[in-house]
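Students often ask why we bother encoding 3D structure as a string. The short answer is that it lets us treat folding as translation between two languages. Here is a chain of 396 residues written in the first language.
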Amino acid sequence: MKWHMKGQEFDALAKVIIEVAENKKFYIWGAGYFGDAIYASLRDEIEIIGYIDSDEKKWNTNKNDLEIHPPSVLSNMCDDAISGISVLVSAGWTREIYSSLNAANFSLNENYFHIDEFYAIFMMYSRNKLCLTNLSVTVTERCTLRCEKCLGFMPHMTNPKHFTLQDIETELTTLFNTVDYVSSLAINGGDAMCNPECYEIIEVIGEQYLTDKIGTIELYTNAIIIPNERFLEMLKRHNVYFRFTDYGSQARQRIEEILPLLSKWGIRYDHVKFAQWCDMGYPQESNGLYGDEAWQKHFTTCDRRSCQTIEGGKFYYCGQVIGADKVGYCLIEESDYFDMTAASINKKELLEFTLGYSEKGYLSYCKKCNGGFNTNKKMVVAGMQLRGVLNNVSIQ
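And here it is in the second language, the structure alphabet:
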């Protein structure tokens, strides 16, 4: 979205959100990890009465002493009941969820909201705090795999590097000079566990920021490096969420070895199986879209809020542009980031940037990228590994 009233874009919506927060009861749609994080962030601010989830295995069970309902709980409500209810959407696949809510006579930004917007706008306008639902920090450009369609372009980097503990501390100091709270901070890569300082990085984040500045820590890995007992104890102590994707026979993952360890130590984890990925397009010269209007529509449809990243003191709405720049595929432009090191920062302008506003209304990478799951129809086998020689590195 293109800025027209910088610092005031959400003034009208904020009035609606604050009124709804004060007068309605809420369901959280999405009883998974992010639903958990949002519940923890908002339970003292609004009245949450339950969860909704599309996974029938979760129906009629409880999370945080609240019942998990099927989507039909909304369609079965009478008009009077609907008038007192609002829904916060924290799950992915928003197109399908929004369609279900519309069919049940709910309306976007009236009695259902995307959680990123609701949480950030509510906290800014009612508490004068800049709060984010999620953000990632990259700790390494090295990886245990060489995925052909890597979203971060890691296999195509000539000199991938590890970021040091000092690098990460500098990033977080810069971030929290302006941002008050992040519900979920992702430790990302590459494979984050490749970094020899991964333990120290998580330990420092857990000791210095957890609870006061960060709600929960996520660790993204490929389930190839087996964590030792010291590492596992640290993950348990800081209640880190261990996340990995199962790529099947394409990768040499050690999932069957890791799962018993995580269960033994009582570590939260997410084991997702993907048969297909989106093909973002690299190394195509164009995605076939031309002109500001087309690129703005592409950006809005794609919605990459889950890819927000801070690196080098800059806040990126879509962290993929960083990798694209490093391999010389798509150079970063000033409008692609928000400078967190500036002498003076308007919190409402940064809030707007985190929710999709910018000078152009799109990113430089939008001219080449096919987009994420919401808009991309080009699919490839997940985790397919490159073979041969790449950047003078022999790939087995």
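Translate back mentally: The chain is about 30% helix and 20% strand. Keep this in mind for the problem set.
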